[in-house]
Amino acid sequence: MLSLQLAHRLENRHVLLIGAGDVAVTRIPKLLPTGCKLTIISPSFHNKIRETFPPEWSNNIPLGQTITNANWDSQLQQAYRVVNDTYKQEYFSLESAWSLILVCISDHAVSRQIYEDAISRYGCGQMINVADVPPLCNFYFGANATLAQGKLQVLVSTNGLSPRFSAILRDDIEQRYNEQDGQLDLAIEKLGQLRSRVRTIACNPQDVAFRMNWVKVITDRFGLPYCHTMDVDKLTHLFTQMYRDATLQTDTPVILTDNDFPTRDQILQDYSQ
């Protein structure tokens, strides 16, 4: 069965990570750049995880102590809270809700207990990932390829069957497109500008289908090799003309067909920089 791949926005949202060993080390670089408020529960901490602690924290946090980062900021990429202890159900109460719960310990029996406690407390809708136990995961991490100065993210997932193969394919994607990174960055920047401008021009609810179709056709005309050459000003002018023509007879603009647009050759010749 296929999984639904979604991009989760986690800035300022609480995420719980139980365990701070080798597996947790692979999770941290994916979590902290999202700006989430990460709480880590563990009786010991991998040195790489300690690097995410604020400098003022002692390397020897007393057992059973909970420390919150008073100066935490989503841009710092630091842990929000650390609990130096083994898992206890009471620690779920540190927050009223958790966007994600990650269990990264080697004891499968304890992992299952944590899973059952979480589902009992929050219901089956709680997002939880138990490392190395796919049946106890309702989401997977996959391997993330990051391109275009972070503007483009590609998720490769085998739905938990082979994380290593996902990583190999991720590395291949990054290598293939590494030389085009500057072009991809510029293409995404221009497409974002164009979408913002046409949304301002066609801002009514009834304009959504027309606007989305127009952007789709124009993007397809340029295609992956040429989107970075777009002249946003000229394309904005083209959209304004086509939108006015489409709304002359009715308040709801008609959906244009492919033949209503300039050909690909015309687009590349007249609307590129």
UniProtKB/TrEMBL annotation:
Name the InterPro entries on file. Answer: Met8-like (IPR028161), Met8_C (IPR028162), NAD(P)-bd_dom_sf (IPR036291), Sirohaem_synthase_central (IPR028281)
- The Siroheme biosynthesis protein Met8 C-terminal domain, residue ranges: 184-246
What is this enzyme's class at the first EC digit?
oxidoreductase
Query: PANTHER family in the record, alphabetically?
Result: SIROHEME BIOSYNTHESIS PROTEIN MET8
Coiled-coil annotated spans: none
What Gene Ontology biological process does one annotation of this record name? siroheme biosynthetic process
Entry EC number(s): 1.3.1.76
Pathway stated in the Swiss-Prot or TrEMBL entry = Porphyrin-containing compound metabolism; siroheme biosynthesis; sirohydrochlorin from precorrin-2: step 1/1
In alphabetical order, the GO MF annotations are: ferrochelatase activity; precorrin-2 dehydrogenase activity
What name is this protein filed under?
A: precorrin-2 dehydrogenase
Query: Which UniProt keywords are present, listed alphabetically?
Result: NAD, Oxidoreductase, Porphyrin biosynthesis
Q: Which residues form the Siroheme synthase central domain?
A: 149-175
Work out whether the entry's keyword set contains NAD: yes
Q: Which domain of life is it from?
A: Eukaryota
